[in-house]
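fyi for ur records
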Amino acid sequence: QVNSKEGEFQCKEKHAVVLSPVGKLEISGCETGLHEIKLPKMSVLPSGAESAAWEVCEGAEEMTEPLKQCTAWLHAYFCQPARMASLPLPAFHHPLLQRDSFTGQVLRTLLRDVKFGEAVSYKRLAELAGNSRAARAVGGAMRSNPIPIIIPCHRVICSSGRSGHYGGGNLMKEWLLSHEKLQKEKL
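which gave:
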């Protein structure tokens, strides 16, 4: 790792593309940890054969250990949720998750406290993260989440029960929530 002008570390970043039931997920990371998961925009909900799709289609030969852990975790999430509890989460190496900020606190709280098949309101997540009046800031934290699905910002909904916005689009958010609900009933 080499220091850059901003004091951030420059990593030897590796990339992979995973074909998932919700489309192609682009993942990136270095030897230290996972940097990002980029979601595709869904225009239609997957069904049948599409929803069973799973394959690492680019970058498999150069994957770092955190990327291998990420793809194993994502595979379990989509295809074998009962295995998720026994898999390690990949280390995270994104500056937002390294800093001690309210956004980082919210994302860590979400990861730790809101389990598979559950949902939480923006207001409740603000309370869990230590600032009951920061529901709007929680929305900002969700928008800046670099590692969606693993850090489950799709589980954060409006107090009214509406799903709210999602970086991957509302169709994807609804699909992820219904996938988790369905799988949780099977567990």
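The longest strand covers residues 14-20. thats all i got for now
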